[in-house]
Design a protein that fits this description.
2 copies of one chain form a homodimer.
Chain A: H1 11-27, H2 34-40, H3 45-51, H4 55-80, H5 84-100, H6 108-115, H7 122-145, H8 150-167, H9 173-191
Helix pairs in contact in A: 1-4, 4-5, 4-7, 5-7, 5-9, 6-7, 7-8, 8-9
Chain A binds a DNA duplex (30 and 30 nucleotides) through helix 1 and helix 3.
Chain lengths: ~190, ~190
Amino acid sequence: MARTDTTRPSEARTRLLNTALRIFYAEGIHAVGIDRIVEEAQVTRATLYRHFLGKEELVVAYLNEVDAAMRGQASAAAERGNSPAETLRGLGEAIAAGIRSPEFRGCAFLNAAAEYPDPAHPVHRTVLAHRQWFHDTVEALFTELGTPSAEPAARHFVMLRDGAMAAGCLSDASLVCETFLRGVDGLLRVHG
Amino acid sequence: MARTDTTRPSEARTRLLNTALRIFYAEGIHAVGIDRIVEEAQVTRATLYRHFLGKEELVVAYLNEVDAAMRGQASAAAERGNSPAETLRGLGEAIAAGIRSPEFRGCAFLNAAAEYPDPAHPVHRTVLAHRQWFHDTVEALFTELGTPSAEPAARHFVMLRDGAMAAGCLSDASLVCETFLRGVDGLLRVHG
DNA sequence: GTGTAGGTAGACCGAACGTTCTACCTCTTT
DNA sequence: AAAGAGGTAGAACGTTCGGTCTACCTACAC
């Protein structure tokens, strides 16, 4: 019985969430059935429904997982950067690194929004909440940087990011990153 | 029998295609069943399968319909514009007008790509083909304009467009258009 | 006038969907 | 010793999915 004692916060739930993350992100949401996730997570259906009310809640949990990762990424960039400009540039680099990674499949939130267009739907609302946070974070950095028009600058930054994330898996990732980072540098040059 | 004689090129097919366009664009592809489309097009299942091999082919036909509309938009901008710069600016205006329209639900191609991530899938390939055309069209305009780095400029233009189209139905459309057109103007100022 | 293309109407198929259920097992806490 | 939470195993629910089928009707072209 040489077992770690960390069995408490539910191993099965973690496995379920990691599997959902991997498969939903790679293949889409409507395209993947509960059976697939249950099977690959090596968990029974009953276990899934013990932890989540249904597929919808699992999808929201999946997006929250990605959201947490993004917030971590932003915090890391903020810690590394010695100035708001450096942080913004670092944020851009982190985004580019994601796009260049082999598993990259676009923005999980943009992809989810494409599948859940109804603004009232919980999944769509989760997407909107994440985007609001990202915009506000970027705007705060531009404000810190002393940009008079921090809000439009943030919108520009976000638009470049959205374009890069959308195109990143539809054309050459390196070229996309190059274009994106050049755009970010231009923005920082103008507003900094 | 005061009927127009234009019954030949299949009324039902047109109705089917228009319905598919409307519903797939508004609600997503995997989310909508064949039954819905057949019902709203006021056509029987047998008729659908007489004109299309299956849902997949209908989806491709839907995207080709949108593609044709976009090419028309680009041609119209080229006819109106007296210079490449004017045409690019006009193209931007046309895109912005689409984003501002009440039925706007993002880029049909980006949305489709989110649902069909497999690069080998016919739907995904249709998306790639459209994007290639768009990129080439924009690059040709920058070349005509005399931009030395026409290709990177085109990539920048497309990235802004992608970002605008992606965000257009996830935040205030007017602000998105403002940011987008400002970006296009900046590009034309730099490269023109 | 006969053949054929396009259409209607509706039954039908097997598979997959999300979801619920019963039954039993195994820890940990009390 | 008892209780409860977390888990397994697997059958079953009704619905919807994409797709096929037969039967019949109508208009036009040869």
